[in-house]
Amino acid sequence: MRLVVQQVEYRGHAKSYVRLSGIQLLILGLNYFVIARAEPNRISGQSPILASVPERLIISNALFLVLILDKLLPFSLGLAIIVFNSILAVITFLIWYKTTEDASVRSFFKETFWPLLVRCLNGKRGPFVALHAFGVVEFLIGCLFSVRPGFANVAFQLQPFQDHAAGYLGAFFALFAQCAWQQIYMGKIGSIPFIIANVLSRFALKIPLLVILSASKQIDVGLLVFLGALDFIFGFIILLLLFLLREYRENTEETAEMDAILPSNTNN
Questions:
Q1: Any idea where the domains of the chain sit in the sequence?
Q2: Confidence band (pLDDT; 50, 70, 90) for 5?
Q3: CA-based angle 64:70:76, to the nearest 5?
Q4: Whole-Å CA distances, 143 to 67, 109, 138, 216, 235
Q5: Which residues contact 71 (CB under 8 A, 6 or more apart)?
Q6: How far apart are CA 25 and CA 164, in angstroms?
Q7: Residues 12-24: what's their mean pLDDT?
């Protein structure tokens, strides 16, 4: 660990991008906490937890491996992240395998990936559809700017990268893509607690911290505007659809109660 820390350099906005990555890592950890404790609406089993295995082994590790191969991240730091991700993924799989009856590799793949085939495109599942769709958009954005952080430099008119600043910004977008994968998955299976946590993390955590970083001139305004607008617009739409879903369900329950009462009054 000492070797890893020694190779981390902070010049220009490099330290700010590390802080930005820390914010996204915090949100990722909060998502894991909610996923582990929340009961999804549309499926049973441990699919949401098992989904973290390919998320870590495939998505996160692949993006960080690209950063290492392009020499954007210090080798020891990137390797430490990949090893840590892999260990957590293997531990998750082993715990599931040892504690689940009739567990097998086949059942693992079936339970992990079949929820992605669940249809959620109808009017009664507005917030789930929005969470899923916005997750797809954010996933593509995260992958693009993680693999090619130079595109972000041009798009948001950032200060020239120094040392490993490009790699640290790429690491932020890699974590951004990882969180987006969680949105894609949890939108499919219909988890209201995750939706609430997603909205709260945008409005109560990420946007205020982005404003603080920008006000203290630690990140460029272009990056603040892009990330802040993305979080505000997506968060607002998801929250609005969540309220509409709640109102729809309340009206449906009231209608059902009236239908149950009216026949009894007629008979009397």
A1: 20-248
A2: very low
A3: 55
A4: 11, 24, 8, 28, 21
A5: none
A6: 19
A7: 89
